[in-house]
Design a protein that fits this description.
The protein has 186 residues and is an alpha/beta fold. It is built from eight helices and five strands. Helix 1 (14-25) packs across helix 8 and helix 2 (32-39) packs across helix 3 (48-66).
Length: 186
């Protein structure tokens, strides 16, 4: 089983690349907003109950997939590299799959801010992420998180063998998905 973790800043294209990767590999995509959007009608993700429920849903999905006969899972995540809690969370999720003999593959995406701000308004993104439809709030959140968190790793910071970093500013999502498929033999 392979667990593909796609991470990077907001509106970098994690979900869209994940959707393309799902098409060409047959692996299931569990993008981070699937759990956020499920909880949002009851509790904002920024609240303690919202975060707790999202974490519980994700944990249950990860454990069930790791114990299943599926070939793997693609998951997208906004990783704040300056927060030890995010490092710990990523490590705990990886352990779920690795403890069952699974292989974890890290895919880091990066793109310029101007492009991400444009992608933030794309109809495809807004279709799949209702909580992003308030563009003013979403843009302010994107800029604020970028100013207050480090959302891409430093060179050499990620020590895993199964790791690749892609600047997808000028690459189509299907091209990026093909690169991932080839690199990790999916």
């Amino acid at each position: 089983m392979k667990f593909i973790l796609i991470f990077g800043p907001q509106a970098v294209g994690k979900m869209t690349v994940g959707q393309e990767l799902e098409k060409i590999t047959g692996l299931k995509l569990f993008h981070n907003h699937m759990s956020i959007e499920m909880v949002a009608p009851f509790f904002s993700y920024g609240t303690a109950p919202g975060k707790r429920l999202v974490k519980l849903f994700r944990q249950a999905i990860f454990e069930e997939v790791a114990n299943s006969d599926l070939d793997g899972l693609i998951f997208t995540y906004l990783w704040s590299f300056d927060r030890q809690a995010d490092w710990d969370y990523v490590e705990s999720v990886c352990r779920i799959f690795e403890s069952k003999g699974g292989i974890v593959c890290f895919v880091e995406l990066e793109a310029e801010l101007e492009l991400r701000l444009e992608r933030n308004k794309s109809p495809h993104r807004l279709l799949h992420k209702p909580t992003k439809r308030n563009i003013e709030f979403s843009e302010n959140d994107l800029i604020s998180k970028m100013e207050n968190n480090r959302l891409n790793s430093y060179d050499g910071e990620i020590k895993r063998e199964n790791y690749m970093r892609i600047n997808n500013s000028t690459l189509s999502p299907d091209m990026v998905a093909s690169m991932i498929k080839q690199r990790f033999d999916l």
